[in-house]
Amino acid sequence: MSEAAWQIRPERPADATAITALNAASFGPGRFAKSAYRLREGVAPVAGLGFVAMEDNTLLGSVRFWPISVGGHEELLLGPLAVHGDQRGRGIGIALMQAGISAARQGPWRGILLVGNEPYYAKVGFSRLPPGRVRFPGPVDQDRILGLSLKGGEMLSLTGQVRRAQIDAPVCADGAALG
Ligand SMILES: CC(C)(COP(=O)(O)OP(=O)(O)OC[C@H]1O[C@@H](n2cnc3c(N)ncnc32)[C@H](O)[C@@H]1OP(=O)(O)O)[C@@H](O)C(=O)NCCC(=O)NCCS
Question: Is 171 within the bounds of a domain?
Fold first, then answer.
């Protein structure tokens, strides 16, 4: 099998426009109404945890992580994760998440939450949280609330209301700087 030509590298400021366009194309205008976007609104993504997939100087995929407050502790929310429509199925999504998760393990967080499709995210270690353990703002399908422990088993003690982290920078909900 030939080696993948794409590579994962940390996100740079100059990637922001391409990432915004990718997220808009992947999720559509309805994305801003989702619970996860409410948690991102007005909050900057975590610096150092954004990764992109590049091939021939073209951005093929992106993952970012947001800080969230879970029962008063700062944890992480994975996403947006997106890969260009004609590049899916090449392992890029999994590789982006693995890069982000591995960087997140170096930080102070206990766990990562996300709202998504369990069969896909189980490939990088996510599993369903017991129903009612954490509460997202707005309506969220309990079966799609997934978690990953960054420090042995600490995810199990994650409980409570999920809220926006401290507002620290004027950005819009997919991470593009305003103004
Ligand atoms: C979801 C997404 C990021 C996946 O990216 P990708 O680069 O195609 O994923 P990968 O190639 O790394 O996937 C690898 C594996 O996951 C599987 N997979 C991909 N999407 C899946 C899904 N929605 N459900 C279950 N399995 C899925 C693939 O079949 C593949 O399995 P295999 O290794 O057994 O063949 C991409 O489809 C996308 O951008 N979708 C639109 C945006 C989106 O929905 N983002 C997620 C928000 S919850």
Answer: no
